[in-house]
Specification:
two-stranded antiparallel ribbon; 4 strands; globular; ABC transporter involved in vitamin B12 uptake, BtuC; about 350 residues; about 70% helix; two-stranded antiparallel sheet
Length: about 350
């Protein structure tokens, strides 16, 4: 069978420590990567720019937040502000003549520095108190961006991204921007996958489960909480810059408001906290399902199967979307990643279902 543990023999520890020790997993990852690389060849520009590009970028953002919320267990309700800092920093740096490669690094460092200032609250508070601290970051950054005209130009101003090159390739073409977003998403994915296997990742999990118990066994709580905020904010800042240069091509304060933070948290929760594949599934669900539902209902109305007003037609997809999220939280609180994991484990031992225990 294609998906079977039978015949897979691990004779060295390095084999068992692979990211994908089962051959079927490696084939799936290779196939998905090949499809992603060839997407500009078989996808129209509309689907590439409106669906694939934002899905990749928001998947990277979700994975950055998953590092903090899923692995370290630190709640963050100001992640859109982190991305906004990275976006505006990168635009101002490139306008000053800094190459985009260095501007992305500067965007990540600026986001990490400011994120750590507010993340320091995690050293003294947790739970809802930490949520309030990160909410303060979101609203404070929003206020600064809107009211400091040197940053954004004003509340209704639009800041255009300058023409730049990345590794000597112009980002004016859609394909170039797509491959930059794809490369960054692959980097973030591999980073999160490998962090989970390191002592740093194990320390974050210990802090998440019981921070005082982790301190008893020698884990430096102060160090690892700040490292979690620094790493997550750095990745979020670079992702915000990628979002500005590769997707929006211009930024406004409304693009990084509190609603975006709620979307990112929903992506992490619906996909599955702490899961890498959950970051992709959650981002796809939050971004694409409302569009699919709206198109489906519009087709039913135009064909005469439904006789509803235009106003109700616009709200029904949101109602169904909200009901689907509630259904996931009720029946599978571990998210879409758990559903995928259940199906995968079933195939691994089929037809000997009793061996799953």
């Amino acid at each position: 069978m294609f998906y079977r543990l039978s015949g897979v023999y691990h004779t060295r520890y390095s084999q068992t420590r692979q990211l994908w020790p089962i051959p079927a997993d490696r084939w799936q990852v290779g196939l998905l990567l090949a499809l992603a690389l060839a997407a500009p060849l078989y996808m129209s520009h509309l689907y590439l720019s409106s669906y694939m590009l934002p899905w990749l970028i928001f998947s990277a953002a979700t994975l950055s937040l998953t590092l903090l919320m899923g692995l370290a267990g630190q709640l963050h309700f100001g992640f859109a502000a982190v991305m906004a800092i990275g976006a505006y920093t990168s635009i101002h740096l490139t306008r000053a003549g800094v190459p985009l490669e260095i501007a992305l690094l500067g965007a990540g460092l600026m986001s990490a520095a400011i994120g750590c200032l507010f993340g320091a609250a995690a050293l003294r508070v947790k739970g809802l108190y930490l949520v309030m601290a990160t909410l303060a970051m979101q609203f404070l950054v929003d206020w600064v961006i809107v009211n400091v005209t040197a940053i954004s130009g004003g509340s209704v101003a639009t800041l255009q991204t300058p023409k730049v090159n990345f590794l000597f390739v112009s980002l004016e073409s859609l394909n170039a921007r797509y491959y930059v977003a794809l490369a960054w998403t692959v980097v973030v994915t591999l980073l999160i996958l490998n962090i989970k296997r390191t002592s740093f990742g194990r320390a974050l999990v210990a802090v998440r489960d019981k921070d005082f118990a982790a301190a008893v066994i020698g884990v430096n709580i102060f160090k690892y909480k700040l490292l979690a905020f620094f790493t997550s904010s750095f990745l979020g800042g670079v992702t915000g810059a990628i979002l500005a240069f590769c997707y929006y091509k211009a930024v406004t304060p409304s693009q990084f408001n509190f609603d975006v933070t709620i979307q990112l948290v929903a992506m992490a929760l619906v996909g599955g906290l702490g899961s890498v594949i959950g970051g992709f599934l959650g981002a796809g669900f939050v971004l694409l399902v409302p569009i699919v539902l709206l198109n489906l209902i519009s087709a039913m109305v135009s064909s005469g199967w439904l006789d509803i007003s235009t106003s109700l037609m616009a709200h029904i997809p949101l109602m169904l979307y909200g009901a689907m999220i509630i259904g996931f939280l009720l029946f599978e609180p571990l998210g879409l990643a758990k559903i995928y994991d259940n199906a995968r484990k079933y195939l691994l031992v089929w037809p000997f279902r009793h061996t799953q225990s």
